[in-house]
Amino acid sequence: MDTNKKVATRKSYGEALIELGKQNENVVVLDADLAGATKTDLFAKEFPNRFFDMGIAESNMMATAAGFATCGKIPYASTFAVFAAGRAYDQIRNSICYPNLNVKICATHCGVTVGEDGATHQMLEDLSLMRTLPNMTVISPSDDTQTKWAIKEISQRKGPVYVRLARMETPIIYEENTKFEIGKGIQIGEGTDATVFATGVTVSEALKAKEILEQQGIHIRVIDMHTIKPIDEEIIIKSAKETKKLISIEDHNIIGGLGSAISEVLTEKCPVKLIRLGIKDTFGKSGKADELMKYFGITAEDIIEVINNGKE
Amino acid sequence: MASNKYKLDNLCVIVDNNNLQIDGTIEDVMSSYPIDEKFRSFGFQIINIDGHDIEEIIKAFEVAKNVKGKPTCIIAKTIKGKGISFMENQVGWHGKAPNEEQYNQAIKEI
Q: What's residue A311's pLDDT?
């Protein structure tokens, strides 16, 4: 993990779109008056004829994206997560998922790490809303490399996909061009004292915790759950059997997100205890992203606390 | 907004206006009138017709086809349940299926 070079996954998204646009002329991009913030403006400059700013009308943006998909285009529709998964939920459900259309929803500004914009703009329930929709694939990448892979990879995957992207800059975890697979978590380390399942911005926190704990003689493994749906059952069951403690950590409500998805697998296939770190069924707050992560208990220190002191 | 911005002259919206909502008349529930002025302000070419008059419908489509640079909205004034005495202009028949007796009666009337 390169902690010196930090990149926000929304920026990785914007850059990946340009590459994808060059490779695939069927790719079109839609935004809802937030192109500068979601970074789709990079694509817009390069391919003005394939970029559509739909204004502050997210429901119509999703319906238009659905229309593009019926004409053989591969639409990437972007706005903040709270407006995509929240405001336009009905169109995502009935106009995209029900007819199983090839629309890629790439939502930025998820979680409390949005920072100063505060609770109204911090989406904490999008994983929950999106993963409950039939036909939907849900991806939550953890760094620059993984985001660039995901954006390209989903263009080859038929059907609706939701990608959860962050505003906050996070360390680069993976080397350039690392290969991933949708639906397959990444195991980092072989430790058996605990498993930490993380996703998005919390993966680098989990890796930080792993390093600190190693110096204390405690060996954990981190699983980067970049795909929330379909969830990697195999890796969950394997870790449940091989490690003493299971923890999940996410910048999302503990209801309905990564922790819930893992719990669903565990209760049916391998019933053991899972400690869920995340936003505890409350709205976010305005503040600096790193301060908010501390306030809501989703940092490396919180993981260490749970492992060392059993605090939950 | 979007269809006007992108000058979608191949788009024709048809509003089937029977003056009824589910809980009551449009005026009683929540008025969306005037419908034509609303669409016009969004940049649509407006055509008001009698939705039960086939000739008017065909004529409106012809006009819509030839409108350039903007979308068209045909507002078709209709009567819900037209031709069936006990259904005509009745609020209660939005999402209800007739029973056997009502069905036979309706078929007889149309």
A: 60
**What residues form DSSP beta bridges with A246?**
A195
Q: How far is B95 from chain A (nearest CA, A)?
A: 20
Q: Is the pLDDT of residue B101 over 70?
A: yes
Nearest to A46, CA basis, from A24, A17, A13: A17
In B, minimum Cα distance to A53 occurs at B2
B30 at interface of A, judged by CB pairs closer than 8 A: no
Domain boundaries, chain B: 2-78, 83-110
% pLDDT > 70, chain B: 100
**Cβ-defined contact of A64 to B2 (cutoff 8 Å):** yes
Distance, in Å, from the CA atom of A162 to the CA atom of A290, rounded to the nearest integer, reads: 25
Which structural domains are found in chain A, ordered by start?
2-172 (3.40.50.970), 186-305 (3.40.50.920)
Question: CA distances (Å), B47 to each of B8, B38, B63, B72, in order?
Answer: 16, 13, 9, 8
Smallest Cα distance from B7 to chain A, Å: 13
Q: Is A58 known to be catalytic?
A: yes
User: What ipTM was reported for this prediction?
Assistant: 0.88
Neighbours of A252 (CB within 10 A): 30
Distance between CA atoms of A145 and A134, rounded to whole angstroms? 28
Whether A57 and chain B come into contact, CB under 8 Å, resolves to yes
User: The whole model's pTM is what?
Assistant: 0.95
Q: What is the interface size between A and B, counted as CB pairs within 8 Å?
A: 10
Mean per-residue pLDDT of chain B: 96
Sites in chain A below the pLDDT cut of 70: 311-312
Catalytic residue among A15, A58, A116, A250: A58
